Amino acid sequence: MWHNSFVASTSDFWHHPVWKKSYGAVIANLMTKGYRFKNGLFLAVSNTTIKKCFKRNNEVDEFADVVKSTVPNTHRCQALLNFEEFDKPKTGNNIGEWLVEAHDTVGCKPNYITSHTVDGAFNATASQHTLEWVTSDERSQKMVAENCDAHKINTTAKQASGTSKHTTNLNPEMGASLHTLHLVIAKLCNYKACKDVLRNVSTEHERKKTLQIRQKMVTRWGSDYDEVECANINQHDVDTALKRIHAPGGVNEKLRIQDGDEEVANIPTAQDWNKYQQYEGAMAPMRVYSIAAQSAQVIAHEELFWGRATIEQLSAPFFLMKENLSKKLGSRGGADLTVRSLQCLHL
Questions:
Q1: Which of 54, 178, 236, 275 could staple 326 via S-S, CB 3.0–4.6 A?
Q2: Distance (Å, whole) CA 339 – CA 337
């Protein structure tokens, strides 16, 4: 079924921290013929396999009884070509040769592969060059060596916001402000005494539901945006709770004595909250694009070309400012939010 359409190959590696072992996987994305069964199952079957089935006695009648139609439809298919423990040094040459073997084992010839996508790691990029070089004599077309859009989006977003540890900090002022927010959000999420203060503020504010504060995680893409977005939604309660926690005689002094931490953490200022609102408005399109790039329905990253073009157009030289609507409750707050949303849509 490989030669029915182009194949977009993808590979990745990860290390299991408990088992102390490294694993690698290769996935092929392609359009292929398949049959939809009456029970809802969809099965991709190659022409060779279906011909062998039809040669057997009564196989055609039995097959027709369980499928909606004996005429195949073309659908997207993701095939796991290889998944195994990788005990060799993860050099570009070793990974590239492993990719050649993984494709060849299942009969996916080099001429069928139009692109291979990896993350931004140096050895992963080098493996693309090895794969292309080793199979160059068997190829009638050039293979597109592409880096994962999801990786690039998140790397670019961190670099623009000043929070990236792998590239030059282009926005240290914003990065410092976001770091301050992360420190205080971590306290609100991890210390019961701080949680109690926030809960009391929410009760005084007559909140009907308990606030759910999100804390970013290093290993989760886009969680830094989720942290800021959630803080902006609950800005009034979060800001009020932080001021009480860090006030003289507040919870923060007891926590410092308990933890042996003499450093007095700052809390976000009014100017910081304006930055968080700007950050959310500016990074919202990037967050949506990141989710789309991680979708399992994406067969080839070339399909995201128009998404890239859209992001470039949305990168306007201004930030969308948002009001602190979290301090408004009841029907009036809801009406203000609706009016504000409609104004943004018209803009």
A1: 236
A2: 6
Beta carbons within 8 Å of 314's beta carbon, 6+ residues apart: 285
For 200-232, what is each residue's pLDDT tens digit?
998 888 887 777 888 988 777 788 899 999 999
| 192 & 316 share domain | yes
Q: Using 70 as the pLDDT threshold, list the residues of the chain that sit under it.
A: 1-5, 53-60, 166-168, 256-265, 296-347
Joined tokens for residue 347: 């803009």
Does 19 share its domain with 60? Answer: yes
Claim to verify: residue 14 and residue 162 sit in the same structural domain:
no
**The two three-digit tokens of residue 188, written as one number:** 């609100």
Are 125 and 39 in a shared domain? yes
* Residue 38: domain span: 2-147
Q: Are strands 7-16 and 21-36 parallel, antiparallel or unpaired?
A: antiparallel
Tens of pLDDT, residue by residue over 139-172, are 888 888 888 877 888 887 888 788 887 666 778 8
Closest among 60, 35, 58, 57 to 45, alpha carbons compared: 35
- Is residue 108 classed as helix, strand or coil in its secondary structure? coil
Same structural domain, 177 and 140? no
